[in-house]
Amino acid sequence: MGDPRQNDWEIINDLAVGPQIHRIIRERIVSTDLLPGMRLSEAELAKSYNISRQPVREAFIKLADQGLVEVRPQRGTYVRKISVAAVLDARFVREAIESDIASFVAQEPDDQFLERLEQLIVEQKKAEKGDADAFLKLDHEFHHCLAEAAGKTYAWKVVEDVRAQLDRVRYLSYFQFPMEEIIAQHVRIVSAITSKNPEAASEAMREHLREILHTLPDISRSRAELFDDVDFTSSP
Fold it and tell me: CA 35, 55, 23, 155 torsion: positive or negative?
């Protein structure tokens, strides 16, 4: 198992250790720092981060619920392969929720909110090449900003709960496909919202979230060792 990232040491503190260690392990799985099939040791992780085993155990339970790890009784906890079916399901849920969010905020957008979206796009362009972690965090913040502007806290929680497998594919896509189009799609979403065009905003978001349908087949074939069910015969 790879060593914890340097900044992880700065993140762990005495408050809410469970959610923090969950986030750290989740990010290491998404970024392929922890590869499918790798056995995760509760004791080793606890020792690495200088914490008790209980928050690691809690993190494993949540990661299992998200389909990122598999807890095998008497054998251990293992990183799961990426499920194509789970990716397609997550994409479907995100489109249903976030297209409506885009439509909602386009009805009466706030100037400060629009400025924040524009700034995020500027930052995405800077992180476009060479920093997958930064780019994907900015992409996540872009979508979160929309949900916050719409006041859809529960809807965003649903998105957060289903996006784990999707994030793994999106991380891989950063290295195989140009991010210019993703940024251009964000620009189209913001343009539609700025124009107070709910229908156009919704359609722009749908187009954006369907991008993975075009990239997923190539990614799963080129990194077949990371996937467990490559089958695109059914419609998402």
Answer: positive
> Which residues, in sequence order, are CB contacts of 92 under 8 Å at separation 6+?
236
pLDDT at 147: 97
Question: Which of 33, 60, 79 represents a domain boundary (last residue)?
Answer: 79
* Residue 121 included in any domain: yes
Residue 124: pLDDT band (50, 70, 90) is very high
C-alpha triplet 113, 23, 27: angle, nearest 5°: 90
Nearest CA to 155 among 167, 166, 143, 165?
Answer: 143
Domain holding 123, by residue range, is: 84-226
> CATH number of the domain that 182 lies in?
1.20.120.530
The enclosing domain of 23 has a CATH number of 1.10.10.10
- For 164-214, the pLDDT digits (tens) are 889 999 999 888 888 899 999 999 999 999 999 999 999 999 999 999 999
In total, how many domains does the chain have? Answer: 2
Please indicate, yes or no, whether residues 191 and 105 belong to a single structural domain of this protein: yes
Return the amino acid letter for 203: E
| Cβ proximity of 136 and 171 under 8 Å | yes
Question: What is the reported pLDDT for 230?
Answer: 65
CA distances for 29 relative to 36, 68, 114, 188, 214, angstroms: 8, 7, 33, 31, 23
